[in-house]
Amino acid sequence: MSFAMTIGLAVALVCAFAAIVLGRNLTRAIVGAMAFLAGLGFSMSIAGAGYLAVVVVLLGGSMLGTLQLFGWMLVDVDRDHLPPTDRPTWFARGIAFVLFGGGLALLVAAAVVGGEFSVEGVGLPSATPAEVGAFLFGPLAEATILVGLTIAASLLGVLLLLQDDRGGS
Amino acid sequence: MVVESNVAAWLVGAAIALFWIGMLGLLWRRSLVGMLLGLLFAWISVATATIGFVGLQDETERAAAGGALVLCLCVLCCMQIATGISIVVARIRRRGTLDADDAGLLEG
Predict the structure, then answer these.
(1) Fold (topology level) of A1-80
(2) Which of the listed residues A22, A55, A82, B54 has the most CB atoms within 10 Å of its CB?
(3) 3-class SS of residue B54
(4) ipTM field
(5) Does residue B35 belong to the interface with chain A, where contact is any CB pair within 8 Å?
(6) From A17, which residue of chain B is nearest by alpha-carbon distance?
(7) CA of A11: how far to CAs of A33, A111, B45, in Å?
(8) Which candidate from A5, A135, A157 shows the least CB-CB separation from B68?
């Protein structure tokens, strides 16, 4: 267990939390999320995740770029101009937040008490990209077709949603 | 590649914390773009946990299946975020706001 990996994970989690909690303006949230991705990619690389870390960082970064592009096009990046939340909504969100935090606390408590998840000599990951590709287009061919259909359907949905109501683009 | 112990446990633990942060974004933020950011964190946490569990597999075939699962997860994440931001764009064009409370009834 590398010290640098621990630091990278801690920095990534702090940046993700800051991006959510402090991100009242969009630029701050995007910068926090980018720092989170960098920290996570660093930690995964040290852990030996290899090409999977590259895949996660590349695709996550591209989605962050998409959010940044459309967000800057549509939103005032300095503040979100939202009216104050009404009392019932605050109450419902508070209950949901407490329940979710309680579940997380129970999970952490169970992990601390159990504490038997450590594994000696873990390999991360032992399959090469060629083996993953052979698996995707071999035994998982039907699932890969479904993923391809999902991509096509999503892109078609995006095009239709972005189409102007008057028929233009 | 053989690494030191507890790496998978750390990755899975970080993924749990990250999933909580993502859900916090969905519960707390009222901006639809901020909620999408939380959703992105949640998807990345699932991919991180999967990578951690891939490290627990000794057999190459199972590790390859885990790698394929991570790829599929990342693709599905991208598609969901792309569709979500398109819905936000269409909504802002029609209603002029990105308030999540205003979108509660899904009335178009």
Answers:
(1) Helix Hairpins (1.10.287)
(2) B54
(3) helix
(4) 0.84
(5) no
(6) B21
(7) 11, 22, 15
(8) A135
For chain B, which residues make up each domain, given as ranges? 7-95
Q: Which residues of A65-101 are buried (b: 16+ CB within 10 A; e: fewer)?
A: ebbbebbeebbeeeebebeeeeeeeeeeeeeeeeeee
How confident is the model over B15-72, as pLDDT tens digits? 988 998 998 888 878 788 888 999 999 999 999 998 888 877 777 778 888 888 889 9
Q: In this structure, how many other beta carbons lie within 10 angstroms of the beta carbon of residue A31?
A: 17
Q: Is B25 on the interface with A (CB under 8 A)?
A: yes
Query: Any idea which architecture B7-95 has in CATH?
Result: Orthogonal Bundle (1.10)
Nearest to A16 among B29, B41, B54 (CB): B41
Question: With an 8 Å Cβ cutoff, is B32 touching chain A?
Answer: no
- The owner of tokens 């920290």 is A39
pLDDT tens column, A150-162: 999 999 999 988 8
Residues A50-90: tens digit of each pLDDT? 888 888 999 999 999 988 888 777 766 555 556 666 777 77
